[in-house]
């Protein structure tokens, strides 16, 4: 099986890392933390031949979710046209309240109120498989109640969201 590759787009006012993961030579990808400009994310992936198989959220603060609904809508419109299943968004179950409250996810204070939802809420140690890739959810509460990391064991890497910052912890 081909090696998992990681692409990155730096998005939005907070310069948030939006990742996309794919297997070399394959077209399906997983998007992690669609920070902002969901249509731009979708267009860039489409232009490079990718189809979004799943969307993962490390947590639900505004700078990680502003692009979610536009990305989900664009992917699902294309999926419907092609007769494919809609994309699923995954988030830790303890993030539900944050995703659904513009005050708590800080989007209202940032000037663009946003509420959203995950299609599937997961727990610590759950596994998610999409696009031929599997990750394990590792709950890392602190930065937010349902903050989590995604560990891709076959690739040997962890996507930590805001659990960790360069030379710092994730503002716990």
List key phrases describing it:
single chain; alpha/beta; 4 helices; 12 strands
What features would you describe in this structure?
With 172 residues, this protein is of the alpha/beta class. It has 4 helices and 12 strands. The chain has helices at 38-47, 62-65, 68-82, 96-99; strands spanning 4-11, 16-23, 28-32, 51-56, 88-92, 120-122, 127-130, 133-139, 148-152, 157-159, 164-165, 168-169. The strands form 3 sheets. A 6-stranded mixed beta sheet has the order 1-2-3-4-5-6, with helices on one face. β3, α1 (38-47) and β4 form a beta-alpha-beta unit. The longest helix has 15 residues, at 68-82. The relative contact order is 0.17. The mean pLDDT is 93.
Unreliable segments (pLDDT under 50, ≥5 consecutive)? Answer: none
What structural class is derived from the secondary structure elements? alpha/beta
Query: What is the approximate shape?
Result: globular
Strand order of the largest sheet: 1-2-3-4-5-6
Mean pLDDT across residues: 93
Biggest sheet features: 6 strands, mixed
What's the structural blueprint in terms of helices and strands?
Blueprint lengths: L3 E8 L4 E8 L4 E5 L5 H10 L3 E6 L5 H4 L2 H15 L5 E5 L3 H4 L20 E3 L4 E4 L2 E7 L8 E5 L4 E3 L4 E2 L2 E2 L3
Parallel strand pairs: 3-4, 4-5, 5-6
Antiparallel strand pairs: 1-2, 2-3, 7-8, 8-9, 9-10, 11-12
Helix pairs in contact: 1-3
Offer a quick outline of the entry:
The chain is an alpha/beta fold. It is 19% helix and 34% strand.
């Amino acid at each position: 099986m081909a090696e998992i590759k990681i692409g990155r787009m730096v998005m939005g006012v907070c310069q948030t890392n939006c990742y996309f993961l794919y297997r070399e030579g394959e077209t399906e990808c997983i998007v992690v933390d669609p920070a902002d400009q969901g249509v731009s994310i979708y267009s860039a992936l489409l232009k490079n031949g990718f189809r979004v198989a799943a969307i993962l959220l490390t947590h639900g603060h505004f700078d990680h979710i502003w692009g979610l609904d536009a990305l989900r809508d664009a992917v699902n419109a294309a999926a419907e046209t092609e007769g494919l299943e809609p994309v699923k968004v995954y988030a830790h179950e303890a993030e539900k309240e944050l995703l659904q409250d513009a005050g708590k996810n800080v989007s209202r204070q940032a000037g663009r109120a946003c509420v959203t939802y995950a299609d599937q809420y997961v727990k610590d140690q759950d596994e998610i498989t999409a696009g031929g890739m599997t990750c394990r959810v590792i709950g890392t509460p602190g930065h937010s109640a349902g903050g989590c990391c995604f560990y891709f064991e076959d690739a040997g890497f962890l996507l930590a969201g805001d659990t960790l910052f360069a030379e710092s912890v994730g503002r716990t």
